[in-house]
Fold:
Amino acid sequence: MQPCVDMTLLDDILAQYPHEEQSLIQVLQDVQRAYNYLPCEVLEKVASELKVPLAKVFSVSTFYKAFSLNPQGKVIIKVCTGTACHIRGATQIIDEVERRLGIKPGETTEDLGFTLHTVNCVGACAMAPVVIVGDKYVGAAKASDMHKYLTVAKGGDNEN
Amino acid sequence: MPRLVIDGKTVVAKEGTFLLQAAREAGIDIPTLCEHPAVEPYGGCRMCLVDVTRPEWDGWSKMVVSCLFPVEDGIIVSTKSERVMNTRRVVIDLLLARCPNTPLVQKMAAEYGIEKTSYVQNPEPTDCILCGLCTRVCDEMGTSAISSSSRGAGREIAPPFNEPPPDCIGCLACAEICPTGFIKYETSNSKRVIWNKEFEMLRCPTCGRGHITKAQAAWHDGKVPGRYFEQCDACKRKAQAAMAVTLMGGSQIR
Ligand code: SF4
Ligand code: FES
Ligand code: FES
Structure:
């Protein structure tokens, strides 16, 4: 079962935008940021408040990669698997993260600490292989250094 | 009124019509999969591609989707050129990879000489060709209960959260417009189930057949005059026929 979510966060978000269809994506972006995902009861209220059919809200929510219907970890790890990064060892990096955190791409650790995603070319091929841990881009990433990046990300996260 | 040439035939079309329509009115058939008179053109399936050129273009031509291309004066259209046929073949080949077991797709592929897809076949075959007719007709109904979800290879037609759609009124418009029969439903005199949602039926006062869901009647209430949806279509037709006969002074046909 989905845990109950705090609807007051949504009320604050909705207060900032005109209640019309055009606000949908901005509201969803704020919801994603505030809740770390798009909880279904929140989407239902978004639909009724903005007067957009729920089916449309669902369609938009599943279309964009920036949105997620499942709770995401505090820190999102994106491993680039584009051509350059693939050649320079993206697979080993993914293996290492899987081994350390026990999650596969697309999954989140049970304590909601980390989510692992793969992405296709982040446009920094010269720095391949590239890993993005939270907001931090790591170039020439090494599988053997992954534990360091993860620890920093976990610690760094407490600051804000 | 724009004059154009389609497959060598001079056609005078109405201003503002789309090429597909103009061709059809001239008796020229163009294959389509996502087009339907009940909904706006969508340009989703790309089967209706045709070649368009002008004498001054010096042999250059462009491919357009005829269902969405407004007629222009002086264009020369070819609906069966080598290039058009090859491109359609790619489209249908890809569709066959997605829907290898779907009779409609198989039949179309066969018409284009394709027996087996040349692409990697979808490991999870589906009957949905993603023509979007169902979601568009649902929008047209004003209900918008279903939509497409995700994108790319994972795109599919689904109700919100893949659960019984709250806005669905059980009208069956989506299932009836679906060209492949992908959308399943069950209906009886008392109960109807579609998208895993259960509906109570209302019966026709004349013949007793369950012909409309309660939710649908409520939806139409106030939008259509009087009690239009109370009687079933068959009984309405009979009543009209009987009235016509009476008006013409004839005796009723048995
Ligand atoms: S379910 Fe049917 S109507 Fe809807 S997109 Fe798929 S094939 Fe088209
Ligand atoms: S392939 Fe990874 S940044 Fe381009
Ligand atoms: S009929 Fe024109 S794109 Fe489908």
In short: The pocket of FE2/S2 (inorganic) cluster (ligand 2) is lined by residues A 80, 82-85, 121-125, 128, 130 (CB under 6 Å). The CA atoms of residues 56 and 96 of chain B lie 38 Å apart.
